[in-house]
Amino acid sequence: MNQVPTVKLNNGTLMPRLGYGVWQIPDAEARQAVGTALEAGYRSIDTAAVYGNEAGTGRALAASGVPRAELFVTTKLWNGPSHTWDRDAVLRAFEDSLAKLGLDHVDLYLIHWPRPMRDDFLTIWKTFEEIAADGRAKAVGVSNFRPRDLERLGEVSALVPAVNQIELHPLFPQEELRALHAELGIVTEAWSPLGQGKELLTLPAVAEIAARHSRTAAQVVLRWHLQRDNVVIPKSVTPSRIRENLDVFGFELDAADLAALDALGATAAGRRIGPDPAAFDV
Prior knowledge:
Elements: E1 6-8, E2 14-16, E3 20-21, H1 27-40, E4 44-46, H2 54-64, E5 72-77, H3 87-101, E6 106-111, H4 121-133, E7 137-143, H5 147-156, E8 163-167, H6 175-184, E9 187-191, H7 204-213, H8 217-227, E10 231-232, H9 239-246, H10 255-268
Parallel strand pairs: 3-4, 4-5, 5-6, 6-7, 7-8, 8-9, 9-10
Antiparallel strand pairs: 1-2
Helix pairs in contact: 1-2, 1-9, 2-3, 7-8
């Protein structure tokens, strides 16, 4: 079994540096997919209310036989436009996630999107402070927050998010945001760390590095993330790829490899795949 190293969050909680993401996996398939990941050696599982697969994920966790203390479970508040997100609404959503997961606590609870046009994430964060204080989430954080969103949080709260989960890959490296995270003590976690497989894994620069190391393109990109101090949550439902994505701790990229991958972000001019947090409000 691969031994995944951990990073210490700003409240002392240890988080695996590589986990398994379940975005777009139907609930009916989540038990098998998450079960395969746990058998392969993953211990960090990342889900969200909006994914619609918390129940299937919870069934896999329960069936796995892995002690709860060895697991790191993340879920996210879907702070969509269908609700007014006051304290009671946030607490109801959190309780619903716990019930579906079959857990009495999660290791990390995130605000899924800032939705700055709604101007309610400061109110939501106050309730997250309460959830963290009572221990039902070992750590709390945010997802898709921009520098200005993090700065606004800091103006009203002494609780610094433990994690900001953002779109991040060599074609969209987010240097400014990563630098701010380092300054504030926030761990950077990358969603779609492989760029959703679009273009990135077929680029000649990536293929050349993979060939030199006798590794796959996906393993090279995941290794780039790890050596750039990002936490990663690759997703696959193919058992061989689930195992392959975990097998990235037996080699290292050299300085030239890292520089070549870093250069992709400059040539791509910051190519975002997912929604822009400034405008996303679905």
